[in-house]
Design brief:
globular, single chain, mainly alpha, 285 residues, MetI-like fold
Amino acid sequence: MTRRRFPVGKTLLYGFMSLWALTTIYPFIWVILNSFKPRGLIRSDTFSLPIGDKFTLENYVTAFKRVDIGTAYVNSIVISGAVTVVVMVLAGLAAYAMVRYSFRLRGFLHSMIIASMMFPVFSTIIPVFRMESSWGIVNTGSIWLTRLSVVLPQIAGNLSFAIIVLMGFIRSLPVDLEEAAYLEGYNVYQIFFRIIMPLAKPSFATVGIFTFLWSYNDLFLQMFFLRSKKFFTITRLLNEISSQAGTNYGLMVAAVVMVVIPVLVVYIFLQNYIIKGMTAGAVKG
């Protein structure tokens, strides 16, 4: 039997990547372990395992008693879900038009889409806030108008990135299928929803995942538009807990775990779509 030899370079690379993974994963493991410890033990014995008398669910019980976690989760899912669906549809249609149709000022429009990605949300928040205030959807008692005030700027903030990603993949798709569909009597929208979207599913999934996670984690816009506790998302609620809990590290780490778990679930179950969507457009055609 021949022994497989591992190159020194590959061994060093795997070792380096393993160490890097440990430095990335360990902080979250530390947070999870300490969330099951009594509050006083977190500071005095922070690196011990929560076993026996050191194990408690008090931090999570306190979190659910002091704050409305369920409502915050619902608000987060509704806002992030709406942003994701709208961005996928609008960006898909815009990318399809930019790739397949020739029209005046198309090059200028493409340059403007790229240029819009250079402006951070911090530079536009004041005019956006004043514009939405003039529409009467900011600081109202309506939960749907309040959610809309967050959804609209998040949609605008994600469109440019989504259009660029989808353009790269749609450009690699063969035109023959679309021409055949035209001969069968399909209109533009039928071609897009029945042919383009199924073929470009990995890229649409990638756009949807990144848009959802960006919206879910976006604290800056939520700080401006979500003022009442009944409208708080889970990220906004974590910020409120952090400011009120003070030195209650048990409550804080429990809240962090509850915020991060949905993000980890999305990455774990949809990581294949992320990889395929980011690479498929680069290797086709």
